[in-house]
Amino acid sequence: EKGGYAHFMLKEIHEQPDSVKRTIMPRIMDDMPDFSAEGFNPDKLKNYKNIYIVACGTAMHAGMVGKYIIEKMARVSVTVDIASEFRYRDPLISEDDLMIVISQSGETADTKAALELAKQAGADTMAIVNVKGSSIAREADMVVYTHAGPEISVASTKAYMVQISIMYLIAFELAYANGKMDEAECSRYTKMLEEIPEVIEEAIALESKCQFAASKLINADSLLYIGRGLDYALSMEGSLKLKEISYIHSESYAAGELKHGTISLITEQMPVIAIATQKNLEEKTISNIKEVKSRGAFVVLIAEPELDIEDGVADIVIKLPQADQLLMPMVAAVPLQLIAYYTAVLKGNDVDKPRNLAKSVTVE
Ligand code: F6R
């Protein structure tokens, strides 16, 4: 059943190109996003005042990527919230807004409660869900099913990837609907998304390099993940994955925040995983890497292929395959998953069933 893989998690990492294909193909028509089967209409979409994206854990991290790209491309304000926080803070959501909840299982109690609250407030609701007929899917006004296939590993990988792929299509659709992107531009981006499964495949080929990086991390008590912009959104997911299965503490930090307190943690005992995929920000991130390196940190850098980095700035450099920088999260997520996976494997942990966790969290 694991198809020759040592764990479901590894199998599911390898399934990502196919999962993405299955998820995006039904929503693309002539190289343009097309959600007509789901019943959402671009004219309505463009009139929302605010978009709220609410979810838990990894699904919330997919929402973080969604926020960056929807705001950047469609110029609409997006708030991302943790479902258990959103539901108890008397949120400002109203009839003018769209609520997007993201859930692999479709059964997460807090996410479901946040959805119900949004409906009571009169907002339109959309659920991005992997499990057919689940509670969240039944309750939302609009449902966009992701087609990751069953995810067995408690640590989510392919579900995150397909959630992000839908975030892109929504960003493209919205940017086109409200005139921030013309048809040619929208179709150019949609085509690039259609090509992403092959790039993910190339990223999976970095497996042995990631395994080597993992072998250098297994004795750490704590790690720091740093990045800026989309790379920061991604670093949150990298950090969660590592904690969840390797049991090594880690934190993700916006690289620019290091100086405001966290850099005091840096010693030779604190490895840093830096992500630099965004050209306009990489120079800044590199200077942050130099700061942690000069304080003794062991640095693993995950970078876009053209990044020019002097020898010795990072201990291990994992160069990603080429993709448009806006789509880089779908590529850079892969080495983060593989590093977490191999760190857990090398520590002898039960990778698919990490201690204290359940696949679906149906109580708050
Ligand atoms: C982490 C993980 C969890 C889930 C979270 C939400 O690897 O899997 O953080 O993402 O419990 O679950 P769903 O998506 O089912 O609502």
UniProtKB/TrEMBL annotation:
Enzyme Commission number(s) of this protein: 2.6.1.16
One GO biological-process annotation of the entry reads: protein N-linked glycosylation
**Reaction catalysis annotation:** D-fructose 6-phosphate + L-glutamine = D-glucosamine 6-phosphate + L-glutamate
Q: Where in the cell is it found?
A: Cytoplasm
Q: Does the keyword Transferase apply?
A: yes
The segment(s) forming the SIS domain are 41-180, 213-354
Keyword annotations for this protein, in alphabetical order, are:
Aminotransferase, Cytoplasm, Glutamine amidotransferase, Repeat, Transferase
What domain of life is recorded for the organism?
A: Bacteria
Catalytic residues per the record? K359
The yes or no answer to whether the keyword Transport is present is no
Mind listing the GO molecular function terms for this protein?
A: carbohydrate derivative binding; glutamine-fructose-6-phosphate transaminase (isomerizing) activity
Predominant location: cytoplasm
Example of a GO cellular component annotation carried by this entry: cytosol
Q: What class of enzyme is it?
A: transferase
What does this gene product do? Catalyzes the first step in hexosamine metabolism, converting fructose-6P into glucosamine-6P using glutamine as a nitrogen source.
Assembly and binders: Homodimer.
Q: What is this protein called?
A: Glutamine--fructose-6-phosphate aminotransferase [isomerizing]
Q: Which organism is it from?
A: Lachnospira eligens (strain ATCC 27750 / DSM 3376 / VPI C15-48 / C15-B4)
Gene symbol?
glmS
In the complete protein, the residues contained here run 249 to 612 of 612
